[in-house]
Amino acid sequence: MVEELVAAGVAAFCAGAVYGMAAARVVRQYERGVVFRLGRLRSAVRGPGFTMIVPLVDRLHKVNMQIVTMPVPAQDGITRDNVTVRVDAVIYFKVVDAAEAVVQVEDYRFAVSQMAQTSLRSIIGKSDLDDLLSNREKLNQGLELMIDSPAIGWGVQIDRVEIKDVSLPETMKRSMARQAEADRERRARVINADAELQASKKLAEAAGVMSDQPAALQLRLLQTVVAVAAEKNSTLVLPFPVELLRFLERATPGEAGRAAEAAVHQLTELDGKTRIVKEPAAEEDVPQST
């Protein structure tokens, strides 16, 4: 009798151990468990931790609740301004309702991938090339809205969509390079023209000052001669105006000859490279032959 009780207890213990091993499940922190009992969805979603199901009756599906990063394959399309481009993107999404993700769609990952590809082709056809290159934030928002609308019924939330790269044909790249080069050249010409305008205004002001003071023009001429002769690598032939001698003569009547000779001598001594050529006097200064 005792032996029969012991054997029955051992058998019950083994049966309980087998049942416990078959019924025990562990759900990770980032997962949720969806239970189907005889094919019918149980309303309660199993949270993370240890849980039990009825063997041979219940079936547990674990759904990952982490954010999924899915690359969208590159799609060929024609923009609204008739430019052929190739665009790829990346999509970030997560499951917010584990039961809907299992029941409403067969494979929510595949469904989101196909929806992202079709939405990307659609957004290419609705956009201009300039928008694809420079206004991506607006396109990303529109693409996210297009994908998120049907995904809500699948228990999936689209977290973010980003356009990664826009590939252009080589002919279009060369055309854009020529356009950018022409634009830079246009701006350079405008800047040079503006600089010439400012310089001409300053030169006009300087000419007005020199017209009031003729001596300033002569001093400027002497400064130019000194600046050129300082290089010592060229020979300068400078016409020496007779008006300068007359100016010196008027400035120092008693020493006009000596001042003129001293000025000529100083200019001639600039490394022996500067030659002074006197201009002929005016016709009224040339004595008439009799």
Structure summarized in a few sentences:
The chain has 290 residues and is an alpha+beta fold. The protein contains 9 helices and 10 strands.
Describe the protein in words.
The protein has helices at residues 2-23, 98-103, 108-126, 129-134, 136-151, 170-212, 214-229, 242-251, 256-268; strands at 24-27, 31-37, 40-41, 49-52, 58-64, 68-78, 84-95, 156-167, 236-240, 274-278. By secondary structure, it is α+β, with helices and mostly antiparallel strands. A three-stranded antiparallel sheet has the order 3-2-5. A three-stranded antiparallel sheet has the order 6-7-8. A two-stranded antiparallel sheet has the order 1-4. It is rod-shaped. The chain starts with a helix and ends in a 12-residue tail after the last strand.
Largest sheet composition: 3 strands, antiparallel
The number of helical elements comes to 9
Kindly name the structural category. alpha+beta
| Contiguous runs where pLDDT drops below 50 for at least 5 residues | 270-290
Amino-to-carboxy terminus distance: 174 Å
Query: So what's the overall shape?
Result: rod-shaped
The overall strand count is 10
Helix content: 40-55%
